[in-house]
Amino acid sequence: MSIATDIPVEGAQIACSEECIMRPGNTNCGGCGMSVALTMIGRILKEESEKATFVIPACCGIVTAGGYPTSAYNAPVLGATFGSSPAFATGYATVRDLNEDPGQVINWAGDGGTYDIGMATLSAAAERNENFMYMCYDNEIYGNTGGQRSSATPVGARTSTTPYGKNASKKDIVSIMAAHGIPYAATLSVAHPEDFATKLKKACHMKGFRFMLIHSPCPTGWKSDPAETVNLVRIAVRSGLFPLYEVFDGKRYRVNDAPDGTDPSEYYQGQRRFPSGAVDLDVVRTECKENSERIMRCAECWPAAEDE
Amino acid sequence: MTLEVVTGNHAAGYALSAAGEANRDARGICAGAYPITPQTEIIEYARKYKFTKGRIVPVESEHSAMGVCIGASMAGARSFTASAANGLSYMTENIFTAGYYRLPIVLVCVNRTMGPPWNIWADQGDALLMRDASLIQFFCETNQEVADTILLSFRLAEDHRILMPALVSMDAFIMSHTLMNTDLPEQEQVDQYLPNLDLPHVLTHEHPVCIGGLAWPQETLSMRVDTHEAFERIPEVYDECRAEFQKIFGRDVGGPFTTFETEDADTIFITSGSIATTTRELIKARRKAGEKIGMIKVKMYRPFPEEGLLDACKNAKKVGVLDRNYAGGLGGLFWHDFRAAAQGKRDDLLIQDYLIGVCGGDVTPDLIEEVFDDLSQRVEADKPVWKGIEL
Amino acid sequence: MIEIRIHGRGGQGGVTLAKLIGTTRYLLGESVQAFGVYAAERSGAPLQAFCRCDTQPIVNRNMIYEPDHIVVLDPTLIGPAITTGLKPGGWILINIDQPPEVFVEKYPGYRIATIDATAIARKYKLGTVSVPIVNTALLGAVAKILDFTLDQVNGALEHIGFVGANIDAAEEAYQLVKTAQPTTEADFVHPEVPHPRIPGLVEGNTGILPRIKTGDWATQQPHRENKVAPCNHICPAGNNVQGFLERLAKEDVDGALEILLDTTPFPSICGRVCPAPCMEVCNRIQLDEGVNVRDMERYAGDHGNAKVTPASDRKEHLAVIGSGPAGLSAVYQLRKLGYQVTLFEGGKELGGLLRTGIPPYRLPRDVLDAEIQRILDLEVTFTTNHRVDKAGLVDLANGFDAVLVATGLQELRDLRLGIDDDQAIMQGIDFLDLANTKDIRVDDEDVVVVGGGNTAFDAARSSLRLGAKSVRVVYRRTIEEMPAIAEEIDQGIEEGLQIDYLTLPISATPAENGYSITCRKMELGEPDESGRRRPVEIEGSDFEIHADRVLLALGQSPEVSIFPEGTEVHEGDSLIGTLQTPVFAVGDLATNDGTVTAAIGSGRRAAFHIHHTFTGEQLLAPPHEESDVVGADLMSMHLFEKNGRHDGYTIPAEERRFTYDEVHQGLPDLDEARRCLSCGVCNECDKCVTYCPEGVLKRVGHEFHFDYSYCKGCGVCVAECPRNVIYMSQI
Fold first, then answer.
1. What are the start-end ranges of the H helices in C469-557?
2. CATH number of the domain to which A65 belongs
3. CB–CB of A94 and B93 under 8 A?
């Protein structure tokens, strides 16, 4: 996955406005991590069998479309109530399958709709192994309402409802989802486009419930430089804060990118949401290390098949 | 025709499933289902049904049950579900969504007292919680009416002039769990009555719009006015659906409301649900005794057929409303709506509310006789009167 | 009642400004309202905020449609629409670094005030550089034009908890705001509030394209500009190093060769013998190891196919004297430009020092011949064994339209050490000439080579191959100062050379066999004019070494006897003003650089200079600005992964030291080219396109387009460009 080779990402050159899955003129803030992810998704999904229909609960992702009747999405979008988008997606995907329609149903949700209010519905859809992709763009905050804490907010982060920094740790959503035994659970990074594309394509050609978590900086909520959005994700991956890995059927693991020793402090320095002293970097380092080791041990003991 | 003796839940399950099956040559049927007493048998029936093209999804909550229905309906399938009481209230957000998305989903409510405390018996308060959502509401009197009204609801809801969900209610246990003679229609008849669902705003790649994003006040207001105008078209479309029903099934599904002995009546009782049957029989007796009383059974609660009701009461001096529901701090909602309808048009009319059978109490003939006696002696209206409790 | 409407952007603090104005009046006991219009647009989107103040209770709960005054937070919001409903004579306060008079005509009938609140906010570090929070400065300006006192403003700021720099910013704006009066009357138009009915969800939802021109949100815009890679900057031949490596990285070997052949006729030769200063300045050294440019140039030269086509023939006929690298480079470029060229070579064969000075184990003769043949294929007339002297030069000047002298460094430094035997002591360069044609043997001899340049090591290593028992290189400085290519030194040591650093031979006395050379130890003193530390003899440190043969490689200097007495030999203009025909010096003769690559550059420059002389057309690109050279500090090194250099196969010392087989075998594939970071030059890696959150950056073919109508100016493309090609400008 060396980017030193600088081989152009396939399809990048046809990135003109009409073909984007999220068109320019959307309402997202500049440097929004979700925007990067959506733009990438649009370039990756090109086959008839990959044409996306989005189901999106209340979150920045639905507001992205802009005011009625405009749509910044170059795809059908079904807005869902905050807590039940996986149910909406279940209904839509079921009818698609009953009628053998081509295309992918992508349940596109923020961390609030995933970790918090949508958790029960998400878990139920996973348990039923519904046939759609669930992609959570995790900006670790209720961005759409102005930046309140969610259970995805990392410890120490200041939000409008944790004005002195959050005490509790972030939920390990991938482990939770993998524990459902779903065919596919993975983490995706917009700073690693080849890996992103590989996983998305792979997920597209699987059946059943596929869960993908996308680390998605929110410059407004994180008080970070919009230009640094991709770099923050890169640091998170390299330092082990956001390890890139896959879990198949809840029991076979693959690590896609092992941490390279980058210190997590670089990640924290780039964001003003962490008040000084709220994050004990030694604890973070230990947790990064332990978490990475845990995943790597899983991958050693229960490796994914080569062709997975 | 298949004459059967079935429960209300069975009748509802049969009608819903037959309607779903009738869409097999189009986009099929898909629904979410979640149990709650006393409607559970309805979704059990649907789960057992072998659809040619369909799936009933056993979800984790009523909220998601309606969520599945919305997703399925938006994809062009026919859809329905059933609930009651707290289940219905838990579903509320998505019921509103289905209405605002103009989706012809048919929802059956087995009217049960809102809890806690946990009370499973008949009370219309759960369905009436939905009175402000954009959906059609019916209250049924018999198992036959349940089955017939469900079929009519699909046809009405799916008409391009209407396009909104419908809620069909029946009383808990009194209908849901009571065997009654019911004429269940053949599938061919249902197929004939319900053409393939053709949702004009079905969400496809040919129509890649964003449903349910942001809309500013003017845009949202325009949508509300659209819905209101659709409500206003319902009486006309209802009549067409009713006539077609008569043609295919050979019986009348009944109008938005049904009058009995109202023409010359000076006292009229407004009822709904199973209470209407008891009331009708008592009125027959009173008539023989020379009292000029009559009654109206309200079937369609939304849109509220206020002009028709006022017209039926044109010769009356007193109207008693029998409400099997209680809206906190107010009283009965049928009374509330009728009183509002009469305001400025029949200010001379004495309109009295009777809260009867609320929280599932059995509505005996004696209780209704007390209501008749109370109203006959009244010279002016008072606050709602609680019945079935010693105060 | 005063009603103020504020036009700003999400994140600039417009609503807070409304609250600050309101608070100022509240503290005076007035009724106030301050509020914003909330919608879904995010950071950077245009929005409005409102403030009402009245001495009476305010009962109006609407937005403000007919304001008394307006405040504009951002110069990019200025447009005709902002004055909608503004009452005649009202103030328009604009945050801009221009005097108010600029706007008097644009907004007739209104009073104008301007203040550079952005500069004030930046000065007091309010907000961030990209989104400065200008509201407190604007409060000061509002106070001035609406006759609030500074004390009132400070009171409001303190009340709301804005202290410190905010108060300073407000005070500064209060002092600096400039105003202008209207010159005409305003036309007031009562604003209409439309209430259209919009087609609904069922039939009216067409999913039309978004209409928000998010380019209006931006305060900065990205642009692309290629800069200069250090390798390209330093290459004496003027090669486009980054360019040919990029072609190789994309497996376009022919394209790579084409780029090289633009500037040099000798990629296969330089790919073997170039000292490669590019590899010393390679930014990749800061990441892991520099790119092996030399072997990649060799790969392109050896494996590429590219046809060089001369321009149509020109009438001018030129003479070139000397067929070393400079002469051949000049011939090559001149032929490409269409000039007729006749080449005069004093030796038996073409190639000059390339042939006589560089041993075949470093530069195989077939490689040399092939590259010379490529030049000859351009229809060059040449004669060999034709040495030109002073008279000959005048003859040539009379017969040709211009003469280029590229005779190189023929004058050799000598050091006889008192030895008479011309076989026992000889110039290394003469030894190499014999050695390269294998006309000499040194079996069982102890050979001492004096010097530290490439000639010294070529002579020393050739000696090993020709049977020497031992070879010592005696050099008066240290390895740090040695001019020879590092690889040559290393390979020589591997092959068994002994090197005596800081050693100066003083004299020789005949011994039983051969000579005893007296050497003296040296130490390094102060730097000399070349910048190298001058070696200083250490008294009393003499020692003896044995030599059967001494080879001298002490350096060469130009041989200028061909020119009239006193001619100052230099590059560029004609040397001999007395002749009708211009005469130019080129290569080592003119520059004394002593490398093939410098000679190539010199030859090319000379050709372009001649072309300019004849046609006035300047083909030589101006030298790069130092500020355009992208050093490692400007590269985003964190975007590259470490990946060590590929060094290719070198025959082991024990096998090669007895043979003339080519020592270094080059690289078998193009992986090394992919290590090039392409510093400062877009190589279409498409990272900017890939990461652009909005998809407003696209590449069609080799063209990149920014759609500024929608670009929000987030700067991700700048941050993610690994090579400093994209930069931001403020709008």
1. 486-495
2. 3.40.50.970
3. no
Q: Is the peptide bond before C310 cis (omega within 30 degrees of 0)?
A: no
In a domain, A8, yes or no: no
Start and end residues for every CATH 3.40.50.970 domain found in chain B: 2-249
Residues of A in contact with C45 (CB under 8 A): 27
Nearest to A24 among C695, C715, C716 (CB): C695
Q: What's the pLDDT tens digit per position in C626-653?
A: 999 999 999 999 999 899 999 989 999 9
Is residue C504 helix, strand or coil?
strand
Residue written as token pair 């469900």: B150
Q: Please compute the mean of the pLDDT values over residues C495-511 and round it to a whole number.
A: 92
- Percent pLDDT > 90 in chain C is 67
Between chains, do A99 and B212 touch, taking CB under 8 Å as contact? no
Cα C491 to its chain centre, rounded Å, is 32
CATH 3.40.50.920 occupies which residues in chain B? 257-386
For residue B158, which of B10, B54, B19 has the smallest C-alpha distance?
B19
Mark yes or no for CB contact B201/C40 under 8 Å.
no
Residue position matching structure tokens 């039926």: B312
Q: Write out chain A residues lying below 8 Å of C726, CB-based.
A: none
CATH architecture type of domain B2-249: 3-Layer(aba) Sandwich (3.40)
CATH (residue range C220-227+680-730): 3.30.70.20
Are A15 and C697 in contact (CB < 8 Å)? yes
Inter-chain residue contact A20 with C695, CB threshold 8 Å: yes
Q: Please give the Cα distance from B271 to B372 (Å, whole number).
A: 13
Instruction: Tell me the pLDDT tens digit for each residue of B223-273.
Output: 999 999 999 999 999 999 999 999 999 999 999 999 999 999 999 999 999
- Fold for C236-410+562-627, please state it: FAD/NAD(P)-binding domain (3.50.50)
Are the Cβ atoms of C218 and A9 closer than 8 angstroms?
Answer: no
The CB density around residue B200, as the number of other CB atoms within 10 Å, is 11
Backbone dihedral region for residue B288 (phi beyond 0: left; psi -120 to 50: alpha; all else: beta):
alpha
The residue in chain A having the minimum alpha-carbon distance to the alpha carbon of residue C715 is: A227
A116 belongs to a structural domain = yes
C221 and chain A in contact, CB less than 8 A: no
CATH of domain C2-180: 3.40.920.10
Whole-complex ipTM: 0.96
- Contact between chains at C199 and B101 (C-beta distance less than 8 A): no
Q: How confident is the model at residue A4 (pLDDT cuts 50, 70, 90)?
A: very low
Q: Measured between alpha carbons, how far is residue C205 from residues B201, B385, C213 in Å?
A: 8, 49, 21
Architecture of domain B257-386: 3-Layer(aba) Sandwich (3.40)
Tens digits of residue pLDDT in C397-453: 889 999 999 998 888 888 888 888 888 899 998 999 888 887 889 999 999 999 999
Tell me which residue of B19, B251, B280, B12 sits closest to B140, measured CA to CA. Answer: B12
Task: Note whether A70 contacts C207, CB cutoff 8 Å.
Answer: yes
Average pLDDT (C531-539) is 87
Nearest by CB: B60 against A69, A91, A120: A120
Query: Nearest-CA distance from B123 to chain A in Å?
Result: 28
Q: What DSSP line would sit under B232-246, residue for residue?
A: HHHHHHHHHHHHHHH
The overall average pLDDT reported for chain B is 97
Instruction: Please compute the mean of the pLDDT values over residues C502-522 and round it to a whole number.
Output: 90
Q: What subunits touch chain B, counting only 3 or more CB pairs under 8 A?
A: A, C
* C200 interfacial to chain B (CB closer than 8 Å): yes
B-chain CB neighbours of A68 within 8 Å are 210, 213-216, 219-220
Contacts of A33 in chain C (CB under 8 A): 693
The DSSP element (H or E) to which C216 belongs, if any, is none
B212 with A62: Cβ contact below 8 A: yes
Helix (H, G, I), strand (E, B) or coil at A285: helix
Token couple for C581:
């025909």
